[in-house]
From TrEMBL, chain A:
One Pfam family linked to the record: DUF1416
UniProt source species: Longimycelium tulufanense
Superkingdom of the source species: Bacteria
Protein name per its UniProtKB record: DUF1416 domain-containing protein
TrEMBL record, chain B:
Molecular functions (GO terms): thiosulfate-cyanide sulfurtransferase activity
PROSITE patterns: RHODANESE_1, RHODANESE_2, RHODANESE_3
Pfam families membership: Rhodanese
Keyword Transferase: yes
Keywords: Repeat, Transferase
Occurrences of domain Rhodanese (ranges): 18-125, 154-274
InterPro entries: Rhodanese-like_dom (IPR001763), Rhodanese-like_dom_sf (IPR036873), Thiosulfate_sulfurtransferase (IPR051126), Thiosulphate_STrfase_CS (IPR001307)
Protein name: Sulfurtransferase
Keyword Ribosomal protein included in the entry's annotation: no
The organism's place on the tree of life at top rank: Bacteria
Enzymatic reactions: thiosulfate + hydrogen cyanide = thiocyanate + sulfite + 2 H(+)
PANTHER family in UniProt: THIOSULFATE SULFURTRANSFERASE
Length: 101, 279
């Protein structure tokens, strides 16, 4: 059984995940255009409540499996913070970029 | 219960990395976190391969726990400081195991890896080797562990605290949103449960909120302090975090963690399930 630990964050989906069924929110954390590794990336629901958190990969990549609706993605790193909002209408891959400063 | 007995700050930890009788242990599901850098002197405990039974769904038995701690070089008299990623979820889970098997000198590092990293404190890739011990565990203390039958019986009588996110509670999501959502179990929550996400108890840097704030959060959510409480989540690690808050920080006497949690309850045949947002 898979636990709740954060799986490795990659730009490509694992082979067992069906992007036709999952609402995938994926993207990169950047600072001045450079990827930021080790940022704590948090997904907040429409009411601002915590839904999940992952740590960005060496490439700055992060990924969430959400549901249709409005979401905020917030990144926290020693070098700064940033956030972005996204509305997902349905399944598929939604690409984001978060600049931290 | 005083906070100093169960929590240490990052400052304290940094000053006590080499204190005899103090052992730091990092607990993660993903051990690449430890391998990529950990607190100097800390040993690694792998939640999945070392704390869980490899075959049936349960955690390591008493002998397994003794063998594990002996191999890690942890003695009965050592003070164990647990920390980890995921806002200390799995460290809190391990803390609960240590208590279950009768190890009293155990504390959590407030904020875990996250606070340590945000503070820019030192990490090392040097693997810690400690001489083996012969650790003796106690019989499991089931006064802090809930099983499915007592959870069903607790509906409408005890406090049931669902610590998952509001979208998991309502049935919109089946797992925390860093995991794929196709899951075997039904969506929703145990009838009469209140929804107090674990994250309400933590600051954004992963440290626990103050006692007064915590009392207010659970009080406002309708937790009846005169009743026994069972906390659950999806697999029991986030609810260990809330068990820690209620039992260890706030000193509620009768608090159990239901480690079967939603992956068990949501798969049971015939039990009642409620869907929709909290009241």
């Amino acid at each position: 059984m898979s636990g709740c630990g954060a799986p490795q964050q990659t730009a490509t989906l694992p082979a067992n995940v069906d992007a036709g069924k999952e609402v995938v929110l994926t993207g990169r954390v950047v600072a001045d255009g450079t990827p930021v590794a080790g940022a704590f990336v948090r997904l907040l629901d429409a009411s601002g409540e915590f839904t999940a958190e992952v740590v960005s990969a060496e490439t700055g990549d992060f990924r969430f499996f959400a549901a249709p609706g409005s979401w905020t993605v917030r990144a926290l790193h020693r070098s700064g913070r940033g956030e972005t909002a996204v509305t997902a209408e349905g399944p598929g891959i939604h690409e984001l970029e978060i600049a931290v400063a | 219960m005083s906070r100093e007995n169960v929590l240490v700050s990052a400052e304290w930890a940094e000053q006590n990395l080499e204190t005899p009788g103090v052992v730091f242990a990092e607990v993660d599901e993903d051990t690449t976190a430890y391998d990529g850098g950990h607190i100097p002197g800390a040993v690694k405990i792998d939640w999945k391969t070392e704390l869980q039974d490899p075959v049936r769904r349960d955690f390591v038995d008493r002998q397994g726990f003794e063998k594990l701690l002996s191999a890690k070089g942890i003695g009965n008299d050592d003070t164990v400081i647990l920390y980890g990623g995921n806002n200390n979820w799995f460290a809190a889970y391990a803390y609960w195991y240590f208590r279950l098997y009768g190890h009293d000198k155990v504390k959590l590092l407030d904020g875990g890896r996250k606070k340590w990293e945000l503070d820019g404190r030192k990490l090392t890739t040097e693997v810690t080797e400690r001489p083996g011990t012969s650790y003796t565990a106690q019989e499991p203390d089931t006064s802090i562990r809930a099983f499915r039958d007592e959870v069903v019986e607790a509906i409408g009588t005890k406090n049931l605290v669902d610590v998952r996110s509001p979208d998991e509670f309502s049935g919109k999501l089946l797992a925390p949103a860093h995991l794929p959502q196709e899951q075997a179990q039904r969506a929703g929550h145990i009838p009469s449960a209140i929804n107090v996400p674990w994250s309400k108890a933590a600051n954004e840097d992963g440290t626990f909120r103050g006692d007064d704030e915590l009392r207010e959060i659970y009080g406002e959510a309708g937790l009846d302090g005169s009743k026994a409480t069972i906390a659950y989540c999806r697999i029991g690690e986030r609810s260990s975090h809330t068990w820690f808050v209620l039992h260890e920080l706030l000193g509620h006497e009768d608090v159990k963690n239901y480690d079967g949690s939603w992956t068990e309850y949501g798969s049971l045949v015939g039990v009642p399930i409620e869907v929709g947002a909290g009241k």
